[in-house]
Structures are given as structure tokens and as C-alpha cells.
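User: I want to check something. If I give you two sequences, will you return the structure for each one separately, not as a complex?

Assistant: Yes, each is folded on its own. Here is the first sequence with its structure:
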Amino acid sequence: MSAGTTTAIRLLPLTAMVAIAWQFASPARADDAATCAAVDKMVLGNNETAPYVVDEITRAEVATYDCAARTAAFSWTVLANQVDLQDNWRDMLAANFRNGLCARPGLAAVVNAGWEISATWTTEDGQTYSTVATCP
């Protein structure tokens, strides 16, 4: 296994962490105030210890949200340069983020209710990649 493959595989648990946190969010058709309260709790819980080390090459940063706009944004710093990552690192992270959220009915319902849940990863050399979750 190449160094790039190993690095890309280590990045996969990142979105699982967000998905676990989102399990407490209310379903899409629930009251917006209740959904916002769940998002508030999840983001504030994340931010109590942010930034924090997720694994040997990843640091979670402060998350943000806006209930009126129905958005939440998560970000991570990848403690490696882009050249050290597998060529398809962006595709792998986007797919893992989307699949982690959409596999859980409550999370998919929040996304399908119009909440924009985004993720951004920034490498040490400043390369940034962002994605927004969409669920079928």
C-alpha cells in the first residue's frame, strides 16, 4: 500500500465522526426550532474542544452554523501536503461524507429538508476542497 493510499484511508473516518454527531438532529419534517436546537448542541459540542486531533494526519476545526439560513459547516485540516495524498482524495472524502450522512435516515431528512451541510478539508500546503451533502 502506497503512502498516498494509507493517507487517504486515514481520512475516511472524518465524516463518520460528523455523521455520529448528526444522529441527534431532528428529522426533516420536524419543527425547525427543534432541528436548530439539535444543530446548536452538536456544533457547540464540537467547538468545545476544537481544534482537536482526529487522527495522526487530521485536525478538526471549529464548526459553524446559521439556523435562519439552515446551514452547518464543518472543516478539517489535513496535516499533509496534497502531493502526499492519493490522487482521488477529494472524491473519496466527498463520497464518504455524503454516504455517512445519507445512510442515517434522520440525517438524510435534515439534508432533504433544505439544510446545507458542508465539509471543507485544507491541506498543509493550502489546497482546499469543499463539498455539500446531498441525499437521494
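And separately, the second sequence with its own structure:
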Amino acid sequence: MKVTFHKNIAAYSGKDKWQKCIYSATLDGSACTIRRYIKPRETDQQITFAKAAKAIAEIWRYAHTAYKSDLMIYAWLIKNTKEFQGKYMTSSYGWFIKISWKLIDQESLTPDNLTVNTFVENGCTNVKETVENGYLPLVDKVNDLTNDIA
């Protein structure tokens, strides 16, 4: 069945909010399926995850630019180390989220209680300390990444 959209589609997956539908490629891109968009119901897990994401994003927003640059350099070092290629994410924010969740898990915190002070108290003041305390994998040249989060 051939379908015509009111608006041109620029990709094989996405959503068309005017027709209230979502579409995606199947069979290695040889076919495209479309269905009506149904908003999922909220669960307690989704609400908890959303609160955690907002809290982590808020801390990231107010972290020093130099700390963010150090995490970016760390991500680049991981990406270009043969031992870790293809195993880890390559964005600085992704690494920050990983550190945050490790702190939440190890210290039995709720995401709402996560603050910059939590990072400082648990030895995550800068990237070098974070690696030394086992929150991130060890790579060469990490000793130069000493800019503090706050």
C-alpha cells in the first residue's frame, strides 16, 4: 500500500506530529512501517529516572568549564586507547552520568540527594581523583586532568 504524507519525510525513522504517527525502517531499510503514536503511561520507575536525570543535568550545568574540558579529554583518551576501543562511550557528559550513577549506587543515595558536595566528599573532585578512586577506568596521561568540579 502506498502512503503519501502531507509533509516530506527526511529520514526513515521519526515522527510526524501533524499526522500523529511514527515511522521506522524495517528489513534493512527496504520497507518503512508507520503506526499511530500512543503516549506511554508513566510508571514509578520512569518518574524516578526523570528526577535523577534532572538532578544530574543540573549538577553538570553548574560544573566548571575546565572540569568539563578535562572529562572531554578523558573521553578522547579512552576513545584512542586500543584496550578500550568500542567498549565505552565517547562523550564527556556520558562519563559524568556514569560517575553519578556509581556514586548513587555505592553510597546508597537517592538521585535527589546528589550534589556537588557528594562528588567532593567521595573523592570525585577532579578526573584524576575519580580515576584513582575507581569510578573510571585508568588510562595514560590522566595525571594532568586536575581541574575541580566546583
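Because they were folded independently, the notes below concern the second chain alone. The chain is about 40% helix and 10% strand. The radius of gyration is 21 Å.
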